[in-house]
Design the sequence.
C-alpha cells in the first residue's frame, strides 16, 4: 500500500476507535470524571488543608497534575486493551487481518484511539479541576509532550494486554493488580522525598513516578526526578512496547491459528 | 492467462497436532466460478484461512494472481474479498460503518468508499437497513452484509466460505443470481458450500477435499459424467398393488415399489432414461411426474468421500467431529 493508502487505513481505524468510545461516553468518559472529582473533594478540599503545603505548593495544586495523568493512563490503557480484545472476541479483527493494511498501521490506529480517549478524559478532568484549583502552567511543552507520550506508552501497554487476553477477566487483571498500585505509588499524592531512603530507592523502579513528576513539572515547575531521565525512560518503554507488539502482530499471536 | 489462485503442496498442522491439510495443490483460473467441496473438518476453511491470512501455513506456497503471499502478502490481499463462514463484524456498528471501514482498511478514500458502500448495500438490498446496528439485522441480512463488505474493495478474487448457510431459499436464490452476475463481469469466485445443488448449478469447476487431501479437481461436467448410475423417483398416475414380475426380474434396472403410487428405479448411466420408459410402457404403467432421488453431485460426492474415508479407516459417523 502507498503512503497515502496507509494514512487512509490509519485514519479509518482511528475514526472507528473514537466513534466507539464516544458511543459509550457514559462508560468511558463520565466515570473517571466523577472519580477524580471525588479525589479533589476528599483529598484536596477536606484533607488537603490539614496537610498544608507540599513542594512549596498547596496540597490541592500538588495532586492535580497526578490525578489528571492517572485518568489519562487508565483510559488510554483501558481503551486499547478492551477494544482489541472485543475485536478478537467478536472476530471483527479479521476485517483488518484480511486487509492489506500493514501491522504497523493497525497498531498505530489502535494506539491513536487510546491516545484520543486518554486526552479527551484528561481535558475533561483538567476542566473539572479548575473548580478546585487555580492551575498554573510552568512549561507547556513539557506538559503537552509528557501527557501525549504517556498516553502513547499506556496505549501500547493496553494493546499488549489485549493481544494476550483470552477472556474478559484478563483485560481487568493488569489494571487492577499492576497499573493502579503503580499509579498510586507513583507520587500522585506525595513527594517521594517524604519516604525513608529504602522506599525512595524502591520508588525509582516505578516508571509511572517519572511520568507524574515530569507532568507535575509542566504545571508547577517542581519534580523529584530529573526531567531528561523521565523523557528517556518514557521513550525507551515506547520503543520497547512498539517493537514487541509489532512482532506479536506479525507472528499472529492470539489472532491467527 | 494468469491463474487467479495457485496452491502448491499446501500443508497445515495445528498446534494440537491435528493435520488439517496434507499438501494440496490446485489452480483456479481467472474468471472461473470454482467450488471447493468437502465435509466438515475436511480442510476447506483452513485452506481459505491460509489464503486470507487468518491461518498460518505449515508448508507450501500460495500465489494470488501475480503475488506470492510469502513475498508480497499485502498485494495478494488487495486482490481478495472474503465472505467468512461465520459473521465476524462488530455487532454495535451499522452496516454502513462496517462497509465504509472495510474500504478504509484497503486504503480507499472516503469519496469512493461512500459511492461503493451505497452501491453494494443497495445491490444487496440493505440500503434501508444501513444505519441499523448489525445486531438488529436478520441472519440473511448479515450474510448479505458480509458479501457487500467483501466487495467494497472490488476484488479480482472473491472467496465465499459457505455464504448461504442458514439463509432462506429466497435469499439464497437472490444471492446466487448476484454471484453469477459479478462472475460474468470478470470476478473469479471460489465457493465452499454444503448445498451441492448450489455448486452444481453455479460452478464450472469443482475440487473436493477429504481429510486434508485433494481427491478431485475437475470440471463440473466431467465430474458428473463419473456417475455410474442414477436413481429416479416416479409418481404414478394410477395405483399399482405390486411390482410387475418383468420389472422385478429386470437385469438392466433395479425397481422398487415404495408405495402404490411411487416407484423408484436405479438406472445405469450407460443405458439412459429412454430404456426404462420402454419398460414402463410395456407394463402399462403411466407416470405422472419424475425427479432425481438425490442431487446428482451429492450422490457422487458421497461416493467419493466415503471411498476415501474407508481407505483412511474413518467411519462415516466420525467425520465432521473435528470441524474447526
Sequence:
Amino acid at each position: 500500500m502507498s503512503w497515502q493508502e496507509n494514512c487512509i487505513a490509519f485514519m479509518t481505524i482511528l475514526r472507528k476507535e473514537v466513534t466507539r468510545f464516544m458511543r459509550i461516553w457514559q462508560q468511558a468518559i463520565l466515570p473517571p470524571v466523577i472519580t477524580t472529582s471525588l479525589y479533589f473533594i476528599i483529598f484536596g478540599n477536606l484533607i488537603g488543608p490539614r496537610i498544608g503545603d507540599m513542594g512549596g505548593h498547596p496540597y490541592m495544586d500538588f495532586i492535580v497534575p497526578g490525578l489528571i495523568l492517572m485518568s489519562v493512563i487508565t483510559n488510554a490503557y483501558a481503551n486499547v486493551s478492551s477494544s482489541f480484545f472485543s475485536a478478537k472476541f467478536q472476530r471483527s479483527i479479521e476485517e483488518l487481518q484480511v486487509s492489506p493494511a500493514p501491522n504497523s498501521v493497525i497498531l498505530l490506529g489502535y494506539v491513536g484511539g487510546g491516545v484520543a480517549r486518554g486526552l479527551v478524559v484528561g481535558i475533561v478532568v483538567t476542566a473539572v479541576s479548575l473548580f478546585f484549583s487555580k492551575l498554573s502552567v510552568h512549561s507547556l511543552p513539557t506538559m503537552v509532550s509528557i501527557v501525549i507520550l504517556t498516553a502513547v506508552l499506556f496505549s501500547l501497554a493496553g494493546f499488549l494486554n489485549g493481544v494476550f487476553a483470552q477472556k474478559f477477566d484478563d483485560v481487568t487483571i493488569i489494571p487492577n493488580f499492576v497499573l493502579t498500585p503503580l499509579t498510586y505509588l507513583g507520587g500522585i499524592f506525595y513527594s517521594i522525598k517524604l519516604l525513608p531512603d529504602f522506599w525512595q530507592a524502591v520508588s525509582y523502579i516505578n516508571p509511572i513516578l517519572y511520568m507524574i513528576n515530569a507532568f507535575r513539572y509542566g504545571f508547577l515547575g517542581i519534580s523529584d526526578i530529573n526531567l531528561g531521565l523521565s523523557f528517556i525512560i518514557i521513550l525507551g518503554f515506547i520503543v520497547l512496547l512498539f517493537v514487541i507488539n509489532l512482532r506479536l502482530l506479525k507472528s499472529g499471536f492470539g489472532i491467527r491459528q | 492467462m494468469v491463474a487467479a489462485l495457485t496452491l502448491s503442496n499446501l500443508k497445515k498442522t495445528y498446534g494440537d497436532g491435528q493435520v488439517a491439510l496434507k499438501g494440496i495443490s490446485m489452480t483456479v483460473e481467472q474468471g472461473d466460478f470454482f467450488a471447493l467441496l468437502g465435509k466438515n473438518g475436511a480442510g476447506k476453511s483452513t485452506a481459505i484461512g491460509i489464503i486470507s491470512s487468518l491461518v498460518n501455513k505449515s508448508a507450501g506456497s500460495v500465489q494470488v494472481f501475480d503475488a506470492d503471499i510469502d513475498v508480497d502478502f499485502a498485494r495478494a490481499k488487495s486482490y481478495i474479498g472474503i465472505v467468512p463462514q461465520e459473521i465476524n463484524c462488530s455487532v454495535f456498528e451499522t452496516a454502513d460503518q462496517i462497509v465504509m471501514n472495510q474500504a478504509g482498511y484497503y486504503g480507499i478514500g472516503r469519496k469512493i468508499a461512500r459511492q461503493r458502500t451505497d452501491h453494494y448495500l443497495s445491490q444487496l438490498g440493505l440500503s434501508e437497513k444501513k444505519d441499523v446496528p448489525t445486531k438488529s439485522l436478520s441472519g440473511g441480512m448479515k450474510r448479505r452484509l458480509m458479501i457487500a463488505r467483501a466487495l467494497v474493495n472490488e476484488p479480482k478474487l472473491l472467496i465465499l466460505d459457505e455464504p448461504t448457510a442458514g439463509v432462506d431459499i429466497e435469499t439464497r436464490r437472490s444471492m446466487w443470481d448476484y454471484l453469477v452476475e459479478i462472475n460474468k463481469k470478470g470476478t473469479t469466485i471460489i465457493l465452499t458450500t454444503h448445498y451441492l445443488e448450489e455448486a452444481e448449478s453455479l460452478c464450472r469447476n469443482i475440487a473436493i477435499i477429504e481429510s486434508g487431501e485433494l481427491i478431485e479437481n475437475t470440471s463440473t461436467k466431467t465430474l458428473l459424467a463419473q456417475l455410474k448410475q442414477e436413481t429416479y423417483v416416479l409418481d404414478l398416475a394410477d395405483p399399482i398393488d405390486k411390482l410387475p414380475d418383468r420389472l422385478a426380474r429386470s437385469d438392466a434396472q433395479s425397481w422398487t415399489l415404495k408405495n402404490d403410487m411411487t416407484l423408484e428405479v436405479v438406472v445405469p448411466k450407460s443405458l439412459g432414461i429412454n430404456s426404462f420408459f420402454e419398460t414402463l410402457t410395456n407394463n402399462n404403467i403411466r407416470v405422472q411426474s419424475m425427479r432425481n432421488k438425490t442431487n446428482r453431485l451429492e450422490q457422487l460426492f458421497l461416493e467419493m468421500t466415503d471411498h476415501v474415508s474407508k481407505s483412511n479407516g474413518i467411519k462415516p459417523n466420525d467425520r465432521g467431529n473435528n470441524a474447526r
Summary: The radius of gyration of chain B is 23 Å. Chain B touches chain A at residues 14-15, 49, 52-56, 73-75, 77-78, 80, 82, 84, 86, 88-93, 97-98, 101-110, 149, 153, 324 (CB under 8 Å). Residues 226-324 of chain B form a domain with the Alpha-Beta Plaits fold (CATH 3.30.70.1560). The mean pLDDT of chain B is 86.
